[in-house]
Automatic annotation (TrEMBL):
The SIS domain, residue ranges: 38-192
Name of the protein this chain belongs to: Phosphoheptose isomerase
Species in which this protein is naturally found: Photobacterium aphoticum
Enzyme class: isomerase
Enzyme Commission code: 5.3.1.28
Cofactor note: Binds 1 zinc ion per subunit.
Subunit-structure text: Homotetramer.
Length: 193
């Protein structure tokens, strides 16, 4: 691959990770289970809540926006929120309770039994995501991890979608693909199914 440009190499690396996703029956089955959990939550009047740090915070906001606004076609909004968007809440919790409590505290305030919480962590070890996962499981909120191959998130979640990679950019690219698949499936089934 040395004769290829950096841009070609990056594209090929991304394709390789996505090819691994396609070839993993376990990962594909878990994505389907998570999509069905989100669909069921909406059917009973619950919501999907997401959180992450850095690029994963942006991914949480992106996926929540697809549910609330639209994905493939015009339809009523589906209730979803990213716990990464309110700077007053984020700085208050960070200042008063510490960064590790950032998402747990918001779940306590906004989560309900029957909701789905999707915690996004490429390393699988983000302390604030792990604390939110533990809170969710203790309070009847389904805890879904969206991660790479490693980390404690696999043990802390009810279900974990593990991208078969340890390369952060490639994991993040796959996370958006997975988020889009879940949104597309839920939208199709909820409104046209």
């Amino acid at each position: 691959m040395e004769s290829l440009t950096y841009f070609q190499q990056s594209t090929i690396q991304s394709i390789v990770v996505k090819q691994r996703l396609v070839e993993s029956q376990e990962v594909m089955a878990t994505i389907g289970e998570v999509a069905d959990l989100c669909l069921a939550a909406y059917q009973r009047g619950n919501k999907v809540i997401l959180a992450g740090n850095g690029g994963s915070a942006a991914d949480a906001q992106h996926i929540a926006a697809e549910f609330v606004s639209r994905f493939n076609f015009d339809r009523p909004g589906l209730p979803s929120m990213a716990l990464t968007t309110d700077t007053s809440v984020l700085t208050a919790i960070g200042n008063d309770y510490g960064f590790e409590k950032l998402f747990e505290r918001q779940l306590q305030a906004n989560g309900q039994p029957g909701d789905v919480f999707i915690g996004i962590s490429t390393s699988g070890n983000s302390p604030n995501i792990l604390k939110a996962m533990a809170y969710a499981k203790e309070h009847g909120i389904t805890a879904v991890g969206l991660a790479g191959q490693g980390g404690d998130i696999h043990q802390c979640s009810d279900l974990c979608i593990a991208v078969p990679s340890t390369d952060t950019p490639r994991i993040q690219e796959a996370h958006i693909l997975i988020g889009h698949m879940i949104c597309g499936y839920v939208e199709k089934e909820y409104f046209n199914g």
